[in-house]
Amino acid sequence: MTENTWRKYLTDYNEGLGLVYERFVLNDFLDNLRLHYGIRSVLEAPLYGMAGVSGINDVIFANAGVHVTMVDDTQERLEGVQRIWRDDLQLPADFVSIQPDQWDRLPFASRSFDLTWEWAGLWYIQNPEALLRELARTSRNLVFVAMPSNIQVGYWMRKLVIDREFFLTHDESWTDIGRIRRILEDAGVEIIQQGVLDVPPWPDTVMPANEVLKRMGIRSKQLEDQFTGDGWAWSTMAYYLGQEPDLRERVMKYAWLDHAPLPWQLKTIWAHHRYLLGRVHG
Question: What's the whole-number mean pLDDT along residues 21-36?
């Protein structure tokens, strides 16, 4: 996936089955946090990390009346996300633009939010360590950080075969959850939970199935037809807008491994993301 793929999804909401599944699993996790900890305000920084439509992972909060703030360092993307929230979702949120070198000084007072968080975005920004410290500084309670799992099968398929150029320009050391944990703890965050999220029965290639086949050199009209066209349209936005109310039920039938009562360590080899949840001291 190139750095500019996000432009397509500012108007084309057909993300693919894998991304819709990922969002629903994340939605459930975030909503459980809201209910358990009484979250009333959240900061997502950066708003870009998950592929597909940028800036819609906080919809689950906004629909529950939580005050949402999002930060981005790309003005064009931020304006596109603002349009989605204003014109399509018709939900309130605050959008803050910063320069690419300002992740070490977010424009918020200390202890401003009940939850600060990021999803798979650290390797897209300048100075990820500084951002982690800013997430700790600006939270009055919880910090949630997730990054792609660097041991699952799809990660290595992507790295070695189908998206090698990505790893030439992005620092994959930010998938080291131990490194992230040490930075957060040094910033005064007590880790209260860790685990895995997004464990469907397919590998995580971060691109549509049809594109994966092309990059692997597989040319099959039958397979291409199976993964393209109106019969292969998956859009979280369609669910949010009430156009496909049964979408979540259709997608979450694949969540049996996510929901399996197994230790998270056993799921790690197939999980697409690992996460840390921490509580700020003081």
Answer: 97
